[in-house]
Amino acid sequence: MKSFLLGVVSLLAIYSANCEVFYEEKFLDDSWESKWVYSEHPGKEFGKFKLTAGKFYNDPEEDKGLQTSEDARFYALSTKFKPFSNEGKPLVIQFSVKHEQDIDCGGGYVKVFDCKLESKDMHGETPYEIMFGPDICGPGTKKVHVIFSYKGKNHLIKKDIRCKDDVYTHLYTLIVNPDNTYEVLIDNEKVESGSLEDDWDFLPPKKIKDPSAKKPEDWDERATIPDPDDKKPEDWEKPEHIPDPDATKPEDWDDEMDGEWEPPMIDNPEYKGVWAPKQIDNPAYKGPWVHPEIDNPEYTADPTLYKRDELCAVGLDLWQVKSGTIFDNFLFTNDPAAAKERGEEIKKKIEGEKKMKNEQDEVEREKEKAEKPEDEDDEDLDDEAAEGAPVEEHDEL
Q: According to the UniProt entry, which residue ranges have a biased composition of type Basic and acidic residues (predicted)?
């Protein structure tokens, strides 16, 4: 029994050593103000964040987060944490976004930086390591950004991932694995996954078209050709338009004043169009020519595409037309299972949030109904009566 307990303790110790939480923030109180730094970069009109659970929530204290509070503003706020690298282990970046203002245009993403970040000078051009999260602007842009910096250049994911655009809290999770694969989850459900090499243009293509190869001059790509034995019928040529044979010269037509009268033109019923020989299968057809490919001499595989040598800060660097977005539940870890477990807790809170919102909407509907003028109610009843009245039918004269 003693040896069994020692084994369990050992396993727990190994699990604890392997599971690391690099950064976590739930914004439960005002202590965030001493850790997060506003940018003072010149030339931008920055907005302020406030700590709130918003207008509807599951718990007024547990659900507090940072909310954008001013319309038509840039926002630039960041915090630093103990540097870490994800070398040889998964990287999980997770946070929640609540667009309770029914956002029309604005960012809901985060940027992750190395230790070179100057927090008070953070702005849109500041280099970052990873950018992740939702971005909405009108009906055409409702996507999840997944952008990695690689060798000094930002690379956007080549897939289109649609974000949530309602007013409730949603959890966004990015998992980057040491085998150069990734997953994107929304509300703990996988919405995209794949290979870093395939879904980003980090590296040159493995294959390129052989520059020395050329299509042979006698290569025939025509699937069909005109039938050389097909001849145009002798009676084919007919004019497209002819003078109207039924037209007559108006009685008041004066040739001296109006010029020589000519009948109007009409479509020729005997016109057959432009003649072309019928098509037959081309006996010399070889199919589309495919340019041969060779190994790209500029391509070199990189097994460390996933790796970030140093992550040290996270920032909210975005623009919003209509404010009201709440950011919360930040978690950076190397344990996808732990992140998923936290996610399930957050999903339970969302149900309470929706319940409160529905109750508020019902109260608002009852209020509007009570404030509706009586004469307007009478008009509505008259309209309904008119709509329901029988319609007298009349025969057309």
A: 207-251, 338-372
pLDDT in tens, 187-208: 999 999 999 999 999 999 999 9
Q: For residue 376, how far is the Cα from the chain centroid?
A: 44
- CA dist list (Å): 328 to 144, 216, 347: 17, 63, 13
Query: How confident is the model over 158-178, as pLDDT tens digits?
Result: 999 999 999 999 999 999 999
Q: Is 104 annotated as a binding residue?
A: no
Token readout for 250 is 């108006």
Q: Helices in the chain by DSSP H: which ranges?
A: 2-18, 196-199, 255-258, 336-371, 374-388
**Adjacent-strand bridge partners of 172:** 95, 186
Q: Does the annotation place 128 within a ligand binding site?
A: yes
DSSP 85-118: --TTS-EEEEEEEEETT--SEEE--EEEE-TT--
Q: Rounded to two decimals, what is the model's pTM?
A: 0.77
Q: Is 135 annotated as a binding residue?
A: yes
Q: What are the structure tokens assigned to 57, written together?
A: 């929530």
Q: Would you say 317 is a known binding-site residue?
A: yes
Classify 298 as helix, strand or coil.
coil
pLDDT for res 235: 87
DSSP state letters, 202-245 = -S--SEEE-TT----TT----SEEE-TT----TT----SEEE-T
Which tokens go with 15? 């699990």
Known binding residue 109? Answer is yes
Q: What residues contact 215, with CB distance under 8 A and at least 6 apart?
A: 289, 291
Q: Is the pLDDT of residue 40 over 70?
A: yes
Q: Is 44 exposed, middle or buried (0-12, 13-18, 19+ CB in 10 A)?
A: middle
Dihedral Cα 351, 356, 361, 367, nearest 10 deg: 160
Q: What is the b/e burial string over 3-12, where b = at least 16 CB atoms within 10 angstroms of the residue's CB?
A: eeeeeeeeee
**Rounded average pLDDT over 48-74:** 96
